[in-house]
Specification:
CATH topology of chain B: Hypothetical Protein Ychn, Chain: A
Strand content of chain A: 15-25%
Strand content of chain B: 15-25%
Low-confidence stretches of chain A: none
Number of strands of chain B: 5
Largest interface: A-B, 19 and 17 residues
CATH superfamily of chain A: DsrEFH-like
Mean pLDDT of chain B: 97
Number of strands of chain A: 7
Structural class of chain B: alpha/beta
Helix content of chain B: 25-40%
Strand order of the largest sheet of chain B: 4-3-2-1-5
Distance between the termini of chain B: 25 Å
Radius of gyration of chain B: 14 Å
CATH architecture of chain B: 3-Layer(aba) Sandwich
Largest sheet of chain B: 5 strands, parallel
Number of helices of chain B: 5
Shape of chain B: globular
Oligomer: heterodimer
Low-confidence stretches of chain B: none
CATH superfamily of chain B: DsrEFH-like
Number of domains of chain B: 1
């Protein structure tokens, strides 16, 4: 398959109340092997997926949040987070995991993967995609 | 046009599977190609032949099986999602030491790569969910 398409994985749900975030992340990690132009979007309650210091031990749920840290190694390094969604939930970028990736074209410099964008910018990003998967 | 379809909710609780079925049937009737239907999350529950709805209701699973048989439609159930929810074919049952299988006719169990491939190969990938 030589064709490269722009894939966006949209995350709309908080991480542990439903399985969408966890199984959505599994799709992203498997999909990384296909060498497409991949990004992720976090809107609405989906922004909670990137919250730092998640602790599910009392709830008895599997804490899969460390897996987001592996995304950079899979060259999934465009994680767009909607600013308005953060603000509506009393969050800021400082509350999110400091996810990074290493740029092999820039002497393996460590760069941030999370890009906070406005709702209008998010709308433009959606417009650019070939394939949108919605979790 | 070449379509693929993703079904993310189980039968009867959500309309997603019904709508996906109606779309798929209409697309085929209009002469379009449907490259694949991929079942994920609780959508894998559309693939059990143990489903027994009341006689005055639609049989969502049989409808998919019949459509697959009429059009050689590729119905793929995600293996990881299926294992969590107890959807097994004969091979999976043997591999995991289960005492039986329940996959419906026309469905097959495979990996998430089949979903990504569907996105790459199709002109449009439609997601039916909640």
């Amino acid at each position: 398959m030589s064709e490269t398409k722009k894939f966006m994985y949209i995350n709309r749900h908080a991480p542990h109340g439903t399985v969408y975030a966890h199984e959505g992340l599994e799709v992203v990690l498997i999909g990384a092997a296909f060498e497409q132009d991949v990004c992720m979007a976090f809107i609405g309650d989906g922004v909670f997926q990137l919250k730092q210091d998640q602790d599910t031990s009392e709830a008895g749920m599997k804490n899969f949040s460390p897996a987001y840290r592996a995304l950079g190694d899979y060259e999934v390094n465009k994680l767009y987070v909607e600013r308005e969604s953060l603000q509506e939930r009393g969050l800021s970028e400082a509350d999110l995991m400091p996810l990074t990736w290493e740029d092999e074209d820039d002497d393996w410099a460590e760069k941030p993967s999370i890009r906070v964008v406005s709702r209008a910018e998010m709308s433009d990003l959606l417009e650019e995609q070939d394939v949108i998967l919605n979790f | 046009m070449k379509f693929s379809v993703m079904v993310n909710e189980g039968p009867y609780t959500h309309q997603a599977s019904d709508t996906a079925y109606q779309f798929t049937r209409a697309a085929l009737a209009a002469g379009h190609e449907v490259f694949r239907v991929f079942f994920y999350h609780d959508g894998v529950n559309n693939g059990t032949r143990m489903t027994t709805p009341p006689q005055d209701d639609r049989n969502i699973v049989d409808r998919w099986s019949e459509l697959a048989s009429e059009h050689e439609l590729d119905l793929v159930v995600c293996v990881a999602a299926a294992q969590r929810r107890g959807i097994v074919d004969a091979d999976e049952a043997k591999r995991n030491g289960k005492d039986g299988d329940n996959i419906a006719p026309g469905f097959r169990i495979s990996g998430l790569g089949q979903l990504i491939e569907a996105g790459i190969q199709s002109d449009r990938l439609l997601v039916f969910g909640d």
